[in-house]
Design brief:
45% helix, 10 strands, alpha/beta, globular, 17 helices, seven-stranded mixed β-sheet, 423 residues
């Protein structure tokens, strides 16, 4: 077993043991696209790239998502032969790579038209520098609603926060559960709370809330207030259907199945629900027409949404920066993005609406294009410990155990405990 391990290590790290500069004719690409369909699509992109760059070859390091996020990416970046191009979730880790000098400014190497084809909010910039280009986008919070229930109640698509809260009250008065949510794993309503925070507060205030050693300002209660109101006014519960506080016991899959059965008016979850809706349609199991809308913001607030942007960065030490950036440009090209969109992803390209004829997918893409501010979910945007503290507090708000001001105090207690551990 020891000899086998050594043999594998030499295959994958042999070139790292040499002190010479890495071969500029070989590009090492690290990513998490592991399924057979994803591999077919990315191999096709590699072939097109190599045909356009004679003498340059692509090697890939592929890991499953969990391994890559927890230890894989970190170990690769510390190795003697870090990847030339690497896949990353935009947020905490992309900022870390920029601060450590591990990210190349791609702007001088990009051909005309590449950036212009992408939604501006999907491109990670610092001034004129470009550090991250999008592979795909998952909208974290969308309001999926039962059009039949809405029409019977005389309601339209929610457009403003106060109107939406009033609509939830009206649904409850009619004996309909307004929202079915499952928050056992904390992130579903934690991400919704983060979106409310991003709408109500300036970005620098949100950053301060999650910064180590910083007090959460009282102003944060404005961001938590909509979630507290939903809980207090019974949007998540209905006698005989869902008991008060049961949102903490349901998980996201339980809530999805409950909503698809037609027993609640709305369900807030990410754009990935589209795949389940399509499956239900194909099997003839969806019994009602579906609508989808963004989570509305209040009057005078920022039109912001929480989105997970996955994409590509180039290492600052790559010996072939032009080829590496050209490879990233291939990944965000129309040909490659259309292929991945067929697998169920949402593309950040402005012409992505042409990749599908499904009305709900087109509506989700329209929401992407029209929303000017995207913020990453806490568990990708900030240190894991800080994100967890927020999720735990938001869960207590959603269960009706804390109001907005009490939540700020509880959040500060958790942050003080983390500071005592040096976190």
């Amino acid at each position: 077993m020891a000899l086998a391990f050594l043999a594998v290590a030499l295959v994958f790290t042999g070139d790292r043991l040499r002190l010479s500069r890495p071969d500029p004719r070989v590009l090492l690409v690290a990513h998490t696209l592991t399924t057979a369909s994803e591999q077919e699509a990315i191999q096709e992109a590699f072939r097109r790239f190599e045909a356009a760059h004679p003498g340059v070859r692509v090697r890939q390091v592929v890991m499953n998502s969990e391994t890559y996020q927890t230890v894989g990416w970190r170990l690769l970046m510390r190795s003697r032969r870090p990847p030339d191009v690497y896949f990353l979730w935009r947020g905490y880790k992309t900022e870390l790579a920029i601060r450590r000098g591990q990210a190349l400014d791609m702007a001088p190497h990009l051909q005309p038209g590449v950036l212009e084809a992408l939604a501006p909010a999907a491109v990670l910039r610092r001034g004129t520098a470009v550090y991250h280009l999008p592979q795909s986008v998952d909208i974290s919070n969308l309001i999926w609603f039962n059009r039949r229930i809405f029409e019977e109640a005389g309601l339209g698509e929610p457009a403003e926060l106060e109107q939406w809260l009033a609509d939830c009250r009206r649904l409850r008065e009619r004996g309909v559960l307004p929202l079915i949510q499952g928050n056992r794993d904390l992130w579903p309503l934690g991400n919704l709370a983060a979106e409310f925070m991003g709408q109500a507060l300036p970005p620098e205030t949100v950053e301060r809330c999650f910064a180590a050693g910083e007090q959460v300002p009282e102003q944060a209660a404005e961001g938590l207030a909509p979630l507290a109101r939903l809980a207090a006014e019974g949007a998540f519960d209905l006698p005989g259907v869902m008991e008060r506080g049961a949102v903490a016991g349901f998980n996201d899959i339980d809530a999805k199945v409950f909503w698809l059965s037609g027993r609640a008016a709305q369900h807030i979850i990410g754009s990935w629900l589209l795949a389940d809706i399509r499956d239900a349609e194909e099997r003839g199991e969806l019994r009602f027409p579906v609508g989808v809308a963004p989570v509305p913001h209040g009057v005078g607030q920022t039109d912001a949404m929480t989105a997970v942007v996955t994409g590509w960065m180039v290492h600052a030490d790559t010996p072939n920066p032009q080829a590496a950036v050209d490879l990233v440009a291939e990944f965000v090209s129309r040909r490659c993005q259309e292929r991945f969109a067929a697998l169920g992803g949402l593309s950040a390209r402005l012409d992505a609406g042409e990749f599908t004829d499904h009305p709900l997918a087109r509506r989700a893409l329209e929401i992407l294009r029209r929303t000017p501010v995207w913020v990453a979910p806490p568990d990708t945007a900030f240190a894991p410990e800080q994100a967890r503290a927020f999720y735990e507090v938001a869960a207590r708000v959603a269960a009706g155990r804390l109001d907005a001001r009490q939540a700020v105090a509880a959040w500060n207690e958790k942050k003080a405990a983390l500071a005592g551990k040096g976190l």
